[in-house]
Automatic annotation (TrEMBL):
Keyword Nuclease: yes
Pfam families: Exo_endo_phos
Protein name per its UniProtKB record: Endonuclease/exonuclease/phosphatase family protein
Entry's transmembrane regions: 12-31, 37-61, 68-86
Residues of the Endonuclease/exonuclease/phosphatase domain: 104-333
Highest taxon, organism lineage: Bacteria
The entry's keywords: Endonuclease, Hydrolase, Membrane, Nuclease, Transmembrane, Transmembrane helix
Gene Ontology terms, MF aspect: endonuclease activity
Phylogenetic placement of the source organism: Bacteria, Pseudomonadati, Bacteroidota, Flavobacteriia, Flavobacteriales
InterPro entries named among the record's database cross-references: Endo/exonu/phosph_ase_sf (IPR036691), Endo/exonuclease/phosphatase (IPR005135), GPI-anchor_lipid_remodeler (IPR051916)
Amino acid sequence: MKDLNWFEKFLFFLNSLFAVALLFSYLLPYIPPGTFALLSVFSLGVPFLIIVNLIFFLYWLFRLKKQVLLSFLVLLLGFNHLSSIYEISSSEDLNSHENVIRVLSYNVRQFNQYGWSGDGEIPQKIAQFVKEQDPDVVAMQEYFKGELDIASSFDHRYIKLKEENSEFGLAILSKFPIINSGSLDFPTRSNNNAIYADVVKGKDTLRIINVHLQSFSVKPNMDRLEKDETKKVFLGMGQTFVRQQQQMEMVMELIQQSPYPMVILGDFNNTAYSYIYRDLKDQGFYDSFKEAGNGFGKTFDLSFFPLRIDFILAEDSLETLEFENFEIPYSDHYPIKATLGLRKK
């Protein structure tokens, strides 16, 4: 510290605070929200902590100061966290693989039924996007029942509205036969849900699980965190994570009962640094983005912040050959697509 001027000492003090915060965040996926709800909220800030520590690392490296070791060691300890925010993958030759299936997940925000966007052609643009991508299976969250043109382009579909008189829900659209389907019907106090469909392609059957876990009553953006509202907002977000844990427990029961290889995809309203994400990995699922994605993999429109809360998770019996995310302005979420194939035995 003697070789630092007063400004650099102050910077290193800040660096130490952010490094300790990031180090602590590595424990968050192991703490059930039901045990300590408020702690779970901080998992949303892990990408920010990673970026800040990277900036400090590069600063000290450029200055050739030994303080570079602090952020370097903390980032090294959490290398798996680093790869969850940014990924570099090589391309696969799809021609060398047989029996692939392309799945796409998209929270379509009710096809702009409430006019959040001034673009009146959002439904047509989403339909055109889906047509261009030509997926075998599409899982949609916040699906609006009036947009039947998109659904009718698939021979097989399972659409589940939240309630009998509701206009919104979840949809699984498939080019291939659906031999079984169902809904988990999260408790009525929640507008969210999970559905599944068993899709048959050739001699193989896959269970596609489309989830839309508990949403935030307020979006987690800094504009809402005024001084007089901070406590209320954070407490509400903490309870959201508790309900997500309860909903994921219902999904886990469905997973354990499945006789088929599974893909779980959708809007998790949570990050790769959360308890529910780690729980799914412990069940034998892996993140398709981390296997074949590139870049930040941003799936939610939150200014410059690379928030990834939509996932395609597959079992180890499936191989991700390609992964893409599309930053198109037709919803507050961005669609993601994975090309999957059965691993050679």
